[in-house]
Write a structure and sequence with these properties.
Layout lengths: L1 E3 L6 H15 L3 E8 L2 E9 L9 E3 H4 L10 E7 L3 E6 L1
Antiparallel strand pairs: 1-5, 2-3, 3-4, 5-6
């Protein structure tokens, strides 16, 4: 699945992502915005089961410009039963 980063601003888009991912894989998916010490750190998309590699995170500097708006890029979300969720920003 791929979509523009600014779609992550929509609860409806997040709902569509987890619904479509579940229907295609049979696994529950989770979308988490993570932060530390008052700062947004990264976006993490996970699926139930094992996540063999650290490929399910996108760091905040890849998502946002210095002014805080979403970059004009595409997020590609893929899934493999052996290695888990894989995210790529292009």
């Amino acid at each position: 699945m791929k979509f523009q980063l600014n779609c992550l601003d929509s609860v409806h888009m997040i709902s569509a992502l987890v619904t479509k991912a579940y229907r295609r894989t049979g696994n529950k998916f989770f979308v988490s915005w993570c932060g530390s010490k008052g700062y947004l750190s990264h976006l993490e998309i996970s699926a139930e089961g094992s996540q063999a590699e650290d490929t399910n995170r996108v760091w905040a500097h890849e998502l946002f410009t210095k002014k805080g708006s979403f970059r004009k890029r595409t997020l590609i979300v893929s899934y493999c039963h052996e290695s888990g969720v894989h995210l790529v920003v292009k």
